[in-house]
């Protein structure tokens, strides 16, 4: 079972994502932004960071990387694809997911332990959780406020495509407390908080993030 | 502007040069002429002037810093000592760790965000230059009063800058300091520390050896950053219409630095460099002269090959530019193709600008004309040395003689109020407002960070080997007694390491002072260095490097002497560290160490505007015994929790402990006000299982440390004798200060 | 040498925390003129010679695909001076 | 209702990492028109009625103290339409 982890220039959490994949029992394969070959992986993670410095808009430039063109095709065919933080931003910029991530309402970078609830445990990345399960994983970003128009929001809510929601006070101004969403098929998930930093309570606030990575193994086995 | 060449200099010996405007003294200028046997060219003058500046040459501090070498203990752990970009220590299992602090005080006052950001960028490059992967940063900061208008401008910008740069580099921030005092109002201190790790055989040095090897410049293009002084030279000597306006501040590009780090590490992994140097203060002047001086031969550089961001730059300006995110490497010709290939992979600009020669000169040409021809050592390592006059300032005896008259709470209500006030005072209040802007999780190895006593990172995922780092300065004590102040800061930083159970191993420092031309400041500095050198000798800890920042003053008012001391420790298994707080009821709390009436320089005195009295005297023998006890207790799994006492005394320590995991405590003590508020150094609170009592008593006896049981854990309040403070109230007091001052 | 300016603003219905923060800061500093503030981005692009129709079409294209995100932003392109 | 626009740009001699990143991305996407790109901020300020001379002076003042940092940035103030 191979899970690809993409490195763009400026990606930071690639090693963490690879470690999480290994913890879950799969093989992590490093993918390079300029190489359009996916090297036989069964799923892909776009990890967090500041790809290309995130100077223009987060994820705006990475979206055009050669590796993304193959990923977009494969994800269209059903390959599981998880975008964490900057990866989520890339997925929105690439229009694989609706909406956009904008500046936090408090205007500064925010790193804290965040409680979220799993609102949809039917996706390729959340099946290890029970519906409504609450977990604590790190949230850390400057532009994590999910925004979209009313029609899109109604559609996301109506179709059960909200994957995770912040619990308690809204940390960044996201509409409807959205922390993560999925596409219609449920194979593509974008998530603002960082499950890869919560796979071991020695180095994270909990080990409750591991479920995202074990979920995808189940999804690939049941394919 | 015409080009000043070596030939021209030979033929126009009487040409008037603006050495004074460049900060050179008359005798310094004379010495340059003596070294060269002629007047310097404008480019040479530019190089000497920046390299002989206080910042680069340590001309006022050298005579004192020598003690760090002279008094040093021989340490087997020291792999690279003072003099290189950063010292390197052996932490076992084949790993070497490098760490260093640097200041970026003045730029951060002018442009807080960029000043702080480029401060982080600079220290990270120093660590990278040693061949190490940077793994963590810390940021000891000082500001004017928390409620001062300018602090509201400066602090948020500095915090955002430290975070903006460090977060983008993917470096966890594992600690720092935020301290307020009115002497920093026009002169905030931004010190930044970086830790890096490598295998022993990967250590790199700034040496250009091997004739025929190539000098390679890579990273950002060169712009006109930070060369104000040299513009003087360009305009005044050469009578043109004057240079283009050059930026007063440097702007950093953390993305470029992140790519530079990954690119460099890939280059190091393939062993493609003979020597390497980052470009920091004094830019190319520093890098080329230090590389050549550290190596065996000379060097030839074709300056016109340097890629420019601003094509109008003159050669003098290119030599001086402090553009960020640049590195200079010495590469054997057979490796250059691969070197260029790796740079191409990371999209990093790279240019061969020269080569190592078997001569003894540093020769720089501009489109074929020789503009610099100097012995590199005279630029890099043989600058002027001053033994500046020093005199004990008048204030010292006066304030030492003052008898403090502090209001000491005697009623239950008064005790409660004191605890709450201390919990909320800006110097002791919760710093999450700051650290929530810093990524502490990236790289997945952070074991401890704010609010723990020290930062701790794992360096091996399989063996769980880790390092801990703490920085400390107590400027109030240093003001009263700089000699003891330095020792006390050293002891405190080491104790912060040992509290978690790590073994202190090495020391770095950043000495922030006023003007060295003031004999009183110079005395403070000399006493500090003497104290630190004596302290390190006594504690058996080598100093691996550091930084001196002078001229920190507003008008004639100097900042408090602020020696920030960083201590690095090693822990063989991070899983066994002692956490700073307890997560359950039913434990016994003990206070290790004696408490005296030590209020001079305390937070309680500061809150009551009292600056006088005598600082405590450091008992380093006791400090070492306590550290040994703390490490032994960790190894024996005796401690459930341990937390150091420092500013705010026992009151602050208890507040932090009960709030950390939201488990209260019931404390029974005598002499309540003094026990709670005194800041006698060398104390720690530990939590143990009641059944381990005898083990603790035996351990304390063995190491001759006084212990007192002070209470038990549990409940949702902090109870001190008859005083009850609900945790919620305590938390509100502790956490609301920063949001109230600086917004949400 | 001509300068093409691309202005990018958040759509009116999208929350603009930066603009809001500026609007809140102004009265605190004693400035009372603003009813509302929105903050956007300005790109100054230098091109060689006078811009051709084709080039301007290219800039439009670049603005649409890269400089602005049409999901949340609008943009205008103009030649300056 | 009038709109005052304040454009804030980094001074030409100051490094502009944002503009540099855009300039580098454009050719990768097949856009070749740009010689250089600088990125700045645009503030749109709405005021009631036509702006008075006094108000404009106030905006200048606000731009200088809040919207721009004169150490590294320049700004222009103008009334739009
Ligand atoms: N306070 C100090 N204590 C010990 N070493 C110091 C101190 N200040 C400077 N040094 C050492 O002097 C050398 C030169 O310092 P510096 O010019 O700041 O280095 P760099 O140019 O690499 O930043 C370094 O090895 C540094 O560690
Ligand atoms: Mg250096």
TrEMBL record, chain A:
Q: Does the entry feature the keyword Cytoplasm, yes or no? A: yes
One Pfam family name is GATase_5
Keywords in UniProt for this one? ATP-binding, Cytoplasm, Glutamine amidotransferase, Hydrolase, Ligase, Nucleotide-binding, Purine biosynthesis
Q: Which GO terms describe its biological process?
A: 'de novo' IMP biosynthetic process
GO terms for molecular function, please? ATP binding; hydrolase activity; phosphoribosylformylglycinamidine synthase activity
Q: Does the keyword Cytoplasm apply?
A: yes
Name under which the protein is recorded? Unannotated protein
Q: What taxonomic lineage is listed for the species of origin?
A: unclassified sequences, metagenomes, ecological metagenomes
TrEMBL record, chain B:
The cross-references to InterPro entries, in alphabetical order and at most eight, read: PRibForGlyAmidine_synth_PurL, PurL_linker, PurM-like_C_dom, PurM-like_C_sf, PurM-like_N, PurM-like_N_sf
Q: Please list every transmembrane segment annotated in the UniProt record, as residue ranges.
A: none
Query: Does the UniProt entry include the keyword Magnesium?
Result: yes
Per UniProt, the keywords (alphabetical) are: ATP-binding, Cytoplasm, Ligase, Magnesium, Metal-binding, Nucleotide-binding, Purine biosynthesis
The terms under GO molecular function for this entry are: ATP binding; metal ion binding; phosphoribosylformylglycinamidine synthase activity
Question: Is Cytoplasm there in the keyword field?
Answer: yes
Q: Which Gene3D superfamilies match?
A: PurM-like C-terminal domain, PurM-like, N-terminal domain
Which CDD domains does this chain map to?
PurL_repeat1, PurL_repeat2
Boundaries of every PurM-like C-terminal domain copy = 211-366, 585-716
Q: Which residues form the Phosphoribosylformylglycinamidine synthase linker domain?
A: 16-59
Which Gene Ontology terms describe the biological processes this protein takes part in?
'de novo' IMP biosynthetic process
Q: Where is the PurM-like N-terminal domain?
A: 83-198, 452-571
What name appears for this protein in its UniProt entry? Unannotated protein
The species is freshwater metagenome
**Source species taxonomy:** unclassified sequences, metagenomes, ecological metagenomes
TrEMBL record, chains C, D:
Q: Which InterPro entries match?
A: PurS, PurS-like_sf
The keyword Ligase is assigned to this record: yes
Q: Which GO terms describe its molecular function?
A: ATP binding; ligase activity
Give the record's keywords alphabetically: ATP-binding, Cytoplasm, Ligase, Nucleotide-binding, Purine biosynthesis
HAMAP family listed in its UniProt record: PurS (MF_01926)
PANTHER family from the UniProt entry: PHOSPHORIBOSYLFORMYLGLYCINAMIDINE SYNTHASE SUBUNIT PURS
Protein's recorded name? Unannotated protein
């Amino acid at each position: 079972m191979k899970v690809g982890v993409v490195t763009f220039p400026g990606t930071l959490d690639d090693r963490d994502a690879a470690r999480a994949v290994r913890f879950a029992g799969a093989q992590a394969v490093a993918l390079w932004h300029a190489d359009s070959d996916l090297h036989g992986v069964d799923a892909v993670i776009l990890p967090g960071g500041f790809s290309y410095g995130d100077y223009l808009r987060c994820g705006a430039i990475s979206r055009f990387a050669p590796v993304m063109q193959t990923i977009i095709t494969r994800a269209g065919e059903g390959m599981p694809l998880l975008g964490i933080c900057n990866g989520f931003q890339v997925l929105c910029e690439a229009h694989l997911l609706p909406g956009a991530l904008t500046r936090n309402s408090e205007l500064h970078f925010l790193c804290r332990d965040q409680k979220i609830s799993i609102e949809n445990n039917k996706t390729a990345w959340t099946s290890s959780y029970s519906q409504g399960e609450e977990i604590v994983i790190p949230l850390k970003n400057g532009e994590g406020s999910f925004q979209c128009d009313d029609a899109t929001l109604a559609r996301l809510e109506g179709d059960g495509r909200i994957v995770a929601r912040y619990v308690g006070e809204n940390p960044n101004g996201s509409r409807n407390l959205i922390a993560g969403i999925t596409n219609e098929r449920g194979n593509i998930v974008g998530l603002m908080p960082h499950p890869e930093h919560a796979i071991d309570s020695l180095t994270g606030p909990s080990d409750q993030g591991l479920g995202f990575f074990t979920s995808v193994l189940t999804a690939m086995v049941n394919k | 502007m015409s080009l000043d060449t070596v030939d021209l200099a030979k033929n126009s010996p009487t040409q008037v040069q603006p050495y004074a405007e460049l900060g050179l003294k008359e005798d310094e200028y004379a010495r340059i002429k003596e070294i060269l046997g002629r007047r310097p060219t404008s480019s040479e003058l530019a190089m000497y002037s920046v390299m002989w500046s206080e910042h680069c040459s340590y001309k006022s501090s050298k005579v004192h810093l020598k003690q760090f070498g002279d008094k040093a203990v021989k340490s087997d752990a020291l792999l690279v000592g003072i003099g290189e970009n950063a010292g390197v220590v052996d932490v076992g299992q084949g790993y070497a760790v490098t760490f260093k602090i640097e200041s970026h005080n003045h730029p951060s006052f002018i442009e807080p965000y960029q000043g702080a950001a480029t401060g982080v960028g600079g220290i990270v490059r120093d660590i990278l230059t040693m061949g190490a992967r940077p793994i963590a940063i810390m940021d000891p900061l000082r500001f004017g009063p928390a409620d001062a208008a300018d602090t509201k401008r400066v602090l948020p910008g500095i915090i955002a800058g430290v975070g903006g740069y460090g977060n983008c580099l993917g470096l966890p921030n594992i600690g720092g300091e935020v301290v307020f005092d009115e002497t920093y109002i026009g002169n905030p201190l931004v010190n930044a520390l970086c830790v890096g790790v490598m295998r022993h055989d990967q250590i790199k040095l700034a040496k250009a050896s091997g004739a025929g090897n190539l000098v390679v410049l890579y990273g950002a293009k060169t712009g006109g950053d930070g060369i104000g002084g040299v513009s003087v030279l360009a305009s005044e000597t050469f009578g043109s219409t004057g240079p283009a306006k050059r930026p007063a501040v440097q702007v950093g590009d953390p993305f470029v630095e992140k790519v530079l780090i990954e690119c460099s590490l890939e280059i190091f992994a393939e062993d493609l460099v003979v020597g390497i140097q980052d470009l920091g203060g004094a830019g190319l002047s520093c890098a080329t002269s230090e590389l050549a001086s550290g190596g065996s031969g000379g060097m030839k550089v074709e300056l016109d090959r340097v890629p420019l961001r601003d094509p109008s730059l003159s050669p003098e300006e290119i030599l001086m530019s402090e553009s960020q995110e640049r590195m200079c490497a010495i590469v054997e010709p057979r490796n250059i193709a691969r070197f260029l290939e790796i740079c191409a992979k990371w999209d990093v600009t790279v240019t061969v600008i020269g080569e190592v020669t078997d001569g003894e000169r540093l020769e720089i040409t501009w489109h074929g004309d020789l503009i610099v021809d100097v012995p590199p050592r005279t630029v890099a390592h043989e600058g002027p040395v001053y033994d500046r006059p020093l005199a004990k300032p008048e204030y010292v005896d006066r304030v030492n003689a003052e008898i403090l008259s502090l209001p000491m709470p005697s009623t239950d209500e008064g005790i409660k109020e004191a605890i709450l006030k201390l919990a909320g005072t800006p110097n002791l209040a919760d710093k999450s407002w700051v650290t929530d802007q810093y990524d502490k999780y990236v790289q997945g190895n952070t074991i401890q960070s704010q609010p723990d006593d020290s930062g701790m990172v794992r360096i091996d995922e399989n063996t769980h080997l880790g390092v801990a780092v703490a920085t400390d300065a107590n400027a109030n004590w240093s003001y009263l007694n700089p000699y003891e102040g330095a020792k006390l800061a050293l002891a405190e930083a080491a104790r912060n390491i040992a509290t978690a159970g790590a073994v202190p191993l090495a020391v770095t420092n950043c000495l922030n002072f006023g003007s060295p031309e003031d004999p009183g400041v110079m005395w403070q500095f000399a006493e500090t260095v003497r104290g630190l050198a004596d302290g390190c000798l006594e504690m058996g800890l080598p100093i691996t490097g550091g930084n001196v920042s002078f001229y920190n003053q507003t008008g004639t008012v100097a900042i408090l002497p602020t020696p920030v001391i960083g201590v690095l420790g090693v822990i063989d298994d991070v899983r066994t560290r002692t956490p700073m707080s307890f997560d359950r009821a039913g434990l016994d709390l003990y206070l290790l160490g004696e408490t005296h009436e030590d209020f001079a320089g305390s937070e309680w005195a500061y809150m009551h505007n009292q600056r006088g009295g005598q600082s405590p005297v450091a008992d380093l023998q006791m400090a070492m015994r306590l550290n040994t006890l703390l490490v032994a207790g960790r190894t024996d799994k005796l401690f459930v929790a341990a937390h150091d006492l420092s500013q705010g005394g026992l009151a602050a320590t208890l507040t932090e402990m009960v709030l950390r995991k939201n488990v209260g405590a019931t404390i029974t003590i005598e002499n309540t006000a003094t026990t709670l508020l005194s800041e006698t150094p060398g104390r720690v609170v530990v939590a143990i299982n009641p059944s381990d009592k005898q083990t603790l008593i035996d351990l304390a006896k063995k190491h001759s440390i006084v212990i007192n049981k002070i209470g038990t854990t549990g409940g949702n309040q902090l109870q001190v004798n008859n005083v009850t403070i609900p945790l919620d109230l305590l938390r509100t007091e502790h956490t609301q200060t920063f949001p109230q001052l600086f917004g949400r | 040498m001509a300068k093409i300016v691309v202005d990018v603003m958040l759509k009116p219905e999208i929350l603009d925390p930066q603009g809001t923060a500026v609007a809140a800061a102004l009265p605190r500093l004693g400035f009372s003129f603003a009813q509302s503030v929105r903050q956007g981005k300005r790109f100054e692009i230098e091109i060689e010679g006078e811009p051709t129709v084709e080039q301007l079409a290219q800039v439009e294209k670049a603005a649409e695909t890269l400089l602005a995100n049409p999901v949340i932003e609008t943009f205008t392109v103009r030649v300056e001076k």
